[in-house]
Amino acid sequence: MTSPANFLQEEQMDFKRERPGNAVLLFNGKDVKNWHQRDGQPAVWRVEDEVMTVTKGDILTDETFADAFIHLEFRTPDMPDATGQGKGNSGVYVQARYEIQVLDSYGINIPGKGDCGAIYNQYAPLVNACKPPMEWQSYDIIFRAARVDESGEVLEQARMTVFQNGLMIHNNVILQGPTGGARDMKVGETGPLLLQDHGNPVQYRNVWMAPLPLKGSDTYEPR
């Protein structure tokens, strides 16, 4: 039987995760035709060898979602002379509202609310799960969208569980609302995945999303 520690070590190596049958492929490895910029113009990020590189402007998927399981892989550049937010910076915005930071935070003993894996300015990651720059890393995100009533009043804030490289860095945290840089505050509506241009050539690959049902059945019918 595999121990929990060994399982996590194995999962850390499994960056090229296969997507399930119900998943929506958000990046086809060939182009960014199903992505657009914040102003609605076509995305213009460079794509080579099934990898897209941040080049100009934030990009958003045409696809939108509510509750979802999201997988993506990223690689930060090696910028040894850079520091802080200038060191391999990008961001993954779930529903274009809630940012999970992408940054070269390798080797930081106690990561903070602006380091890699943080839900930006809301929650620091539980542990520093970062690999060194130029190595592929993964985010697996379990997202539960905010619940609102008919008037749009928030009944329950969104929740998020995040694994980085197979290690849990957020455990079902209750989000405090959209983070800085969010596209909008309409948390009761579906939204796209947004990848941020922060001026650094961060790379992404194997980006997909599997929609999750909003709730299970209220009845049980034995067979």
Provide a descriptive summary of the structure in words.
It is built from one helix and 15 strands. With 223 residues, the protein is mostly beta strands. The chain has a single domain (4-211), classed as Jelly Rolls. The strands form three sheets. Strands 1, 3, 4, 6, 9, 12, 13 and 15 form an eight-stranded antiparallel beta sheet that branches. Strands 2-5-14-7-8 form a five-stranded antiparallel beta sheet, with no helix packed on it. It has a two-stranded antiparallel sheet with strand order 10-11. The protein starts with a helix and ends in a 12-residue tail after the last strand. The model is unreliable at 1-15 (pLDDT under 50).
SSE inventory with pairings:
Layout: H1 4-13, E1 24-25, E2 35-37, E3 46-48, E4 51-53, E5 59-61, E6 68-75, E7 90-94, E8 98-102, E9 137-144, E10 147-148, E11 154-156, E12 159-164, E13 167-174, E14 194-195, E15 203-211
Antiparallel strand pairs: 1-15, 2-5, 3-4, 4-15, 5-14, 6-9, 6-15, 7-8, 7-14, 9-12, 10-11, 12-13
